[in-house]
Amino acid sequence: MALLKVESVTKNFGGLVALNEVSLEVEQGSLLGVIGPNGAGKTTLFSTISGFHKPLRGAIYFQEQRIDGLKPHKICKMGLARTFQIAQPFLGFTPLETLITAALNALSLDRATKRAEEVLDMVGLAEKAHEEGGSLTTADQKALEVGKAIATGGRLILLDEVMAGLTVPEAQVMMSLIERLRREGFTFLMVEHVMYVIMKLCDRIVVLNFGEKIAEGTPEEIAKNKTVIDAYIGEE
User: Fold this and answer.
1) Own/partner long-range contacts of 90-94 (Cβ < 8 Å, ≥24 apart)
2) Please, which residues have CB within 8 angstroms of residue 234's CB and are 6 or more apart in sequence?
3) Which CATH architecture is the domain 2-85+155-233 placed in?
4) Is the pTM for the entire model greater than 0.85?
5) What pLDDT, on a 0 to 100 scale, did the predictor assign at position 45?
6) Which residues lie closer than 8 Å to 162 by C-beta, 6 or more apart?
7) What confidence score (pLDDT) does residue 129 get?
């Protein structure tokens, strides 16, 4: 079943068309990757799905309910949450306090505290629960971003370049976390520039270029697609 449907979405900023008739579907339990060069429209797509931008045309459905035009907090309450490319820890908050705050999106304080403790364990931050969030390493701040999305009650998580700034060993840890969360029933839509991550994790990949979808397929199909190679991947 398609958990998310994006149907012919167009978004412009003045005379700039950032997305042009983009369509995609994310199946329950899957991981769909979105790739493309800088300026292709990837972050605009995420912001439009999550309610930060309203599309000019087209429709977006989450769990068969139309969500385009809804405010971000309403979409989040429905179970669609996102991370941000630059980690945004709550200043002065510990990871535990951060996740309690996120969980209050849907739960009472007592239940939010319990859920925050569960999520800290899920993302590998239980031992750092009481450290100041801003002092965490980049890798831990990225894990906390994922934790925030989960703690809100998100079942479909939009990952915006979660590997950016990570070393190869740190990226391997993040990949293992995402794979484990998938086994626990979470669904992911991922924007990512690190190609080995995309090729390893994704079931299918959508390729954007200048705001248009130029290809969709399995990692193997995308790696051999001449249009994609010319636009983004390169001969290597």
Assistant:
1) 90/133, 91/133, 91/134, 92/132, 92/133, 92/134, 93/132, 93/133, 94/129, 94/130, 94/131, 94/132, 94/133
2) none
3) 3-Layer(aba) Sandwich (3.40)
4) yes
5) 97
6) 83, 142, 145, 146, 174, 178, 190, 192
7) 96
